[in-house]
Specification:
The chain has 640 residues and is α/β, with parallel strands linked by helices. Among the domains are: 53 residues; 143 residues, P-loop containing nucleotide triphosphate hydrolases (Rossmann fold, 3-Layer(aba) Sandwich). Helix content is 43%, strand content 19%. The chain has 22 helices and 20 strands. A six-stranded mixed β-sheet has the order 7-8-9-6-10-11, sandwiched between helices. A six-stranded mixed β-sheet has the order 16-17-18-14-19-20, with helices on both faces. A three-stranded antiparallel β-sheet has the order 3-4-5, with no helix packed on it. Strand 1 and strand 2 form a beta hairpin. Helix 1 packs antiparallel against helix 3 and helix 8 crosses helix 10. 38% of the residues are buried.
Length: 640
């Protein structure tokens, strides 16, 4: 029986109908074999019996589905449909795994899961398990492969059925003529159009029992466009967009604001699996509180990379710890994970002490037996060796990654206060948009100040004013002539020569140092061994920021100005940064969305708002509660 061909209204051409089950079988075979057609799958099987067996099973299923005569010129689309990752798969990335969940299940279970990149094994023979409706926080040291893991899932480099739609937040929205509202609403319209076309195709074939129909109807109900614009506005407002900004074209926004538009699109489309890589980057404290309250209501599966312990505690139901090539799972939020790890480590240490005592007794007994029991002794030696290896393995599973600390060089003090003073200062980028009016304050070498306030109030602008990058329109900013200043900001990373290694870059900045001396300096900031000498384009964002911290320390400042220093850092590095700030004998002025860091290092909180800089009466926890109450008074936070 020859199937009728129907016109594809998306392209105007005839095409054969391929069922969802068939496309998933094909995608699985093709993904596993890294080829593009069934013929290539078969020709590449070679002498691998297991591969041949798998191909035979796939071929048998395809014959039953009567799709063997269908042209497969769109195989690439089968593997990426419903995936919105913009980053292509690198040539040097290898991914394998066995998908075990049912094809219509919203859960994901992959055994023997392995990823290698640049010749480095990131995970090996581990299990990836994501239960629908759970909210996972993904933890691990900088450079362990967390972002790579998200991209692998998003691109379906390992087989994941197309019944699970995936969205990954991996880059800012493009600079276009669409307004911010249009950019958010557009993704829902596109998603609905694709789902409606797919449903029409299934019904045209008479497959009224196809389980995919139920999934499509459920998603169409979620993607109601009737109130799309109003809901899009609610999301954008929550992320800090003013009424005027809602109607601005996306090309008029900075990269940070376009990243917020991408985040709004991700939240608005509500995919079955939402992957967020550092979603709080580029957000102010208010937007962080809004996002935390929003995500804790998320009904589908969520996998988040975040350096914010406060945020992880507020959102996550589970923690996945990526360590030494394995994915380890813990039920509960971040604090529960820390307690579970501590208990596990204490138990392992106790077990190790008992084992050491038993090993010592066995060793003494073997020595007493002498030469009359050589054979028995050899057996006991083997047992002793196995015990030691098992004890070492047990400890290896629970001991935290090697901790490191760093410090900013002592400034030498000696400068009388105030070392920096602002008197009756006004500033605006033009006279019609004044950010500051008659502000007055001073800083000295004991200052520990965090600047907070809504987006657009002028927090980063105030730092530029203090360091002398811009000048006030009226009044003055007076600095001690001997004052040394170092400022961390996001664009410092852009100034790195990514073709150079950390050692090479630092020597170009400080040529008076030799390579070995510079390696020792960089090593104190957590970059050791190979990471010191490979090009920085092979390092993670967090590792590149450690290079920046080393560069700042070498400048021997009296005052550190830190504008969002925690972006892309792992939690251990943030703790090391907090300790370094505490031990620094100079002044610190901080802008950060990390509540825990602020709580650790701050003596004063200044609120920038309504053209003023005002001291906050209370600590950062009080300020967070103030922000949360503001959202409650405005009607609360509901899922769109």
């Amino acid at each position: 029986m020859v199937k009728k061909k129907k016109k594809d209204r998306r392209t105007g051409r005839k095409k054969n109908r391929v069922t969802v089950e068939a496309t998933d079988i094909l995608a699985a075979a093709i993904s596993a074999s890294e080829v593009s057609t069934p013929a290539e799958v078969e020709s590449n099987a070679n002498n691998d019996d297991k591969t041949k067996e798998n191909i035979e099973k796939v071929t048998e299923k395809l014959e039953k589905l009567n799709v063997n005569d269908v042209p497969f010129d769109e195989i690439g689309e089968l593997k990426t449909r419903a995936t919105r990752s913009a980053i292509p798969k690198p040539d040097n990335l290898n991914v394998t795994g066995d998908y075990l969940s049912h094809i219509n299940s919203k859960d994901i279970l992959i055994n023997n899961f392995s990823i290698s990149a640049f010749g480095q094994q990131l995970v090996k023979d581990t299990t990836l398990s994501l239960v629908h409706g759970r909210r996972y926080g993904l933890l691990g040291a900088n450079g362990c492969g967390k972002s790579t893991l998200l991209q692998v899932i998003a691109r379906r480099d390992v087989y994941i059925p197309n019944t699970i739609d995936i969205y990954v937040l991996d880059r800012e929205f493009d600079a276009t003529d669409m307004t911010a509202i249009e950019a958010v609403v557009d993704i829902v319209k596109s998603e609905r159009d694709n789902l409606e076309i797919e449903m029409e195709d299934i019904l045209a074939e008479g497959n009224t029992e196809d389980p995919r129909l139920e999934v499509i109807m459920e998603r169409l109900n979620e993607l109601d466009v009737g109130f799309a614009e109003r809901k899009a506005k609610d999301v954008l407002r929550g992320l800090g967009f003013s009424e005027e900004m809602l109607l601005m074209k996306t090309r008029e926004f900075s990269g940070g604001w376009r990243m917020r538009i991408s985040l709004a699109r991700a939240l608005f489309v509500k995919p079955t699996l939402l992957l967020l890589d550092e979603p709080t980057n580029h957000l102010d404290l208010g937007a962080c509180v809004w996002l935390e309250e929003y995500l804790k209501q998320y009904e589908h599966t969520l996998l988040i990379i975040s350096h914010s312990q406060d945020f992880l505690n507020g959102v996550c139901t589970d923690i996945i710890h990526m360590q030494r090539g394995k994915l380890n799972y813990y039920t509960g939020d971040y604090d529960t994970f820390v307690r579970a790890r501590a208990e596990k480590e204490a138990a392992a240490r106790k077990k190790q002490k008992i084992q050491e005592k038993q090993n010592k007794l066995m060793q003494e007994k073997m020595q007493k037996e002498g030469t009359r029991a050589i054979k028995q002794s050899k057996g006991k030696e083997k047992m002793l060796k196995e015990r030691k290896e098992k004890a070492a393995k047990d400890m290896d599973e629970v001991i935290n990654e090697k901790q490191f600390t760093f410090r900013f060089n002592d400034c030498g003090r000696g400068l009388p206060p105030p070392v920096l003073q602002v008197r009756d200062a006004d500033f605006g980028y033009d006279k019609d948009h004044i950010l500051f009016k008659d502000i007055n304050f001073g800083l000295d070498l004991d200052s520990r100040v965090t600047i907070v306030g809504p987006n657009g109030a002028g927090k980063s602008t105030l730092l530029k004013l203090l360091v002398g990058q811009i000048e006030p329109l009226a009044g003055e900013v007076k600095r001690n002539h001997h004052l040394r200043i170092a400022r961390f900001h996001q664009h410092l990373v852009e100034q790195l020569n990514m073709e150079q290694s950390p050692v090479e870059y630092m020597i170009t900045q400080f040529p008076e140092y030799k390579a070995q001396e510079m390696r020792q300096i960089i090593g104190r900031f957590g970059l050791t061994g190979k990471s010191q000498v490979i090009p920085m384009n092979q390092l993670s964002d967090g590792q590149c920021r450690r290079v920046i911290f080393a560069w700042l320390a070498m400048r021997n400042p009296h005052i550190l100005f830190l504008d969002e220093p925690t972006n892309h850092l792992d939690i251990e590095t943030i703790d090391a940064l907090a300790e370094a700030i505490d031990n620094f004998d100079g002044g610190v002025v901080l802008i950060s969305h990390d509540f825990r860091l602020i709580d650790q290092v701050t003596k004063e909180i200044w609120v920038v708002e309504n053209q003023k800089v005002t001291p906050w009466e209370g600590d950062i926890r009080d300020y967070k509660e103030y922000l949360r109450k503001q959202f409650e008074e405005a009607g609360g936070i509901e899922l769109v």
